[in-house]
């Protein structure tokens, strides 16, 4: 079965890359592909968007059932923005007048705004919507666990069960094990220590010493039109060039204890050099 789906994916991929991408005669093939995705718990956003685009170009071919499947499959890929993208490609008249689509959009809004308990209550009243979507509930629970993981450090187990649509607490343990969450004797689920996940980024500005001296030499020798204060600018450039010349590569030996300080000094002087050139340019204007 998996092999047949992969073959179908390959065939659809070739179709979408060709000149017939938006040929309405290909709609039947693409619609079957959407149904196959729903049945086999697979997903292909590009193909689904092509279907919605064909519906835009050919309103008479619009299929509510297929569009509903596309929207539901997009929900299974949260927190990615597929659902919003698909929604924007559906005409407002269909969004407002087609009950299945209207209900799915409502469910999607509940998920995107993290009203998880309300989502499960509403889904229970419209279970026929997901009858043909394999793995829909588990995909939603995976998204909810993602939200819980980045939001909570600890959470009450009963609340977690409600958020996962499992008020009888039959699946919470499975999801806790999946994500490595633990429970203490008070019924609090330890999610994650956010402080341990903080990974500060060190931004290091590296300047090759030989190149810094070379840049200084080039700028000091270049003929630059002076602005309103030519004497001041010339003195600034001369001072910077002199300081670069003092810090030659021979001064910055590997064993020198002052190498780090000199490196920082070179960075500062290079920035000063650039500022001087910029000021000259402004004066020339």
Automatic annotation (TrEMBL):
Annotated GO CC locations: eukaryotic 43S preinitiation complex; eukaryotic 48S preinitiation complex; eukaryotic translation initiation factor 3 complex; nucleus
Segments forming a coiled coil: none
Keyword match DNA-binding: no
One GO term of the biological process aspect: formation of cytoplasmic translation initiation complex
Protein localization: Nucleus; Cytoplasm
Gene Ontology MF: a single term: ribosome binding
Main location: nucleus
Keyword Cytoplasm applies: yes
Keywords linked to the UniProt accession: Cytoplasm, Initiation factor, Nucleus, Protein biosynthesis
Superkingdom: Eukaryota
InterPro entries: ARM-type_fold, CSN8_PSD8_EIF3K, eIF3k, PCI_dom, Transl_init_fac_sub12_N_euk, WH-like_DNA-bd_sf, WH_DNA-bd_sf
Pfam families per the UniProt record, alphabetical: CSN8_PSD8_EIF3K
Residue ranges of every copy of the PCI domain listed in the record: 43-206
Assembly, per entry: Component of the eukaryotic translation initiation factor 3 (eIF-3) complex, which is composed of 13 subunits: EIF3A, EIF3B, EIF3C, EIF3D, EIF3E, EIF3F, EIF3G, EIF3H, EIF3I, EIF3J, EIF3K, EIF3L and EIF3M.
PANTHER family in the cross-refs: EUKARYOTIC TRANSLATION INITIATION FACTOR 3 SUBUNIT 11, EUKARYOTIC TRANSLATION INITIATION FACTOR 3 SUBUNIT K
Family per record: Belongs to the eIF-3 subunit K family.
The protein's role, per its UniProt record: Component of the eukaryotic translation initiation factor 3 (eIF-3) complex, which is required for several steps in the initiation of protein synthesis. The eIF-3 complex associates with the 40S ribosome and facilitates the recruitment of eIF-1, eIF-1A, eIF-2:GTP:methionyl-tRNAi and eIF-5 to form the 43S pre-initiation complex (43S PIC). The eIF-3 complex stimulates mRNA recruitment to the 43S PIC and scanning of the mRNA for AUG recognition.
Name of the protein in question: Eukaryotic translation initiation factor 3 subunit K
Organism whose genome encodes this protein: Neogobius melanostomus (round goby)
């Amino acid at each position: 079965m998996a092999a047949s789906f992969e073959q179908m994916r390959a065939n659809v991929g070739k179709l979408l890359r060709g000149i017939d991408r938006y040929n309405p005669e290909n709609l039947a093939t693409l619609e079957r592909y959407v149904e196959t995705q729903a049945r086999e718990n697979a997903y292909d956003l590009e193909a689904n968007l092509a279907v919605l685009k064909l519906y835009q170009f050919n309103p008479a071919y619009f299929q509510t059932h297929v569009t509903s499947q596309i929207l539901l499959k997009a929900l299974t890929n949260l927190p990615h923005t597929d659902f919003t993208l698909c929604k924007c490609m559906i005409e407002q008249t269909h969004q407002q007048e087609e009950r299945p689509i209207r209900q799915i959009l409502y469910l999607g809004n509940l998920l995107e705004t993290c009203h998880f308990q309300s989502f499960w209550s509403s889904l229970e009243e419209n279970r026929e919507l997901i009858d043909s979507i394999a793995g829909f509930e588990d995909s939603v629970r995976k998204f909810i666990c993602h939200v819980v993981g980045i939001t909570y450090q600890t959470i009450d187990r009963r609340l977690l069960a409600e958020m996962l649509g499992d008020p009888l607490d039959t699946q919470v343990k499975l999801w806790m094990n999946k994500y490595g969450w633990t429970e203490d004797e008070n019924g609090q689920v330890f999610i994650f220590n956010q402080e341990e996940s903080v990974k500060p980024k060190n931004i290091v500005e590296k300047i090759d010493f030989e190149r810094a001296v070379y840049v200084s030499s080039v700028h000091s020798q270049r003929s630059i039109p002076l602005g309103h204060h030519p004497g001041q600018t010339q003195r600034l450039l001369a001072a910077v060039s002199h300081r670069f010349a003092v810090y030659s590569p021979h001064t910055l030996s590997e064993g020198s204890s002052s190498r780090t300080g000199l490196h920082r000094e070179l960075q500062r002087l290079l920035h000063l050099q650039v500022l001087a050139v910029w000021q000259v340019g402004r004066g020339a204007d």
